[in-house]
Amino acid sequence: MMQKCISNGVKFHQAKVVKVVHEEAKSLLICNDGVTIQAAVVLDQPPYNPGYQVAYGIVTEVEEHPFDVNKMIFTDWRDSHLNGNTELKKRNSKIPTFLYAMPFSSDRIFLEKTSLVARPGLAMGDIQERMVAYFSIYIKVVFVRWIGMDGE
To answer: What is the superkingdom listed in this entry's lineage (predicted)?
Structure first.
């Protein structure tokens, strides 16, 4: 693509634009090296800053759980389980998480807490703390996934 641009007369100048002056039919880009560039169209691309979906999931054995064994819970945003922890509830209000629950039996269940998208991504310790606040559980298997929301 770079070669195609060059062969079609595109010129490149590496500098930081410090000011843009928009006029009726053109814009002037004033660079930090003193160069002024005239442009008909200006595309302003801010720095790349992808959001992240962070999930903490466990398969666990418990004495019992409150879920119907024949139903899966999908994106439960409720946070009443955090009522006893003011700081955790405050953090959850800022970057909320939701719960997936998939019971396999009355004493074995898959649970996942997920932060949909945040910049930066929610810290793994924070999401684990929210999961522990949901249940006092014996952890049998743990998996961790950081999912970039940039298509890669």
So the answer is: Eukaryota
Which of 3-7, 63-67, 125-129, 143-147 is predicted least confidently? Answer: 143-147
108 in Cβ contact with 16 (< 8 Å): no
Cβ atoms of residues 80 and 90 within 8 Å: no
Residue 23: alpha-carbon gap to chain centroid: 38
Taking alpha carbons only, the member of 113, 101, 114 closest to residue 66 is 101
pLDDT at 152: 55
Confirm if 133 and 88 have CB atoms less than 8 A apart.
yes
Q: What is the DSSP letter of 6?
A: H
> Which domains are seen in the chain, by residue range?
2-39 (no CATH), 52-148 (3.30.70)
Higher-scoring residue by pLDDT: 30, 120: 30
The whole-number pLDDT of residue 74 equals 92
Antiparallel, parallel or unpaired: β 17-22 and 36-39: unpaired
What tokens appear for 100 in the block?
């997936």
Hey, how many other C-beta atoms are within 10 angstroms of the C-beta on 17? Answer: 14
Pairing of strands 98-103, 36-39: unpaired
Whether the model pTM is above 0.70: no
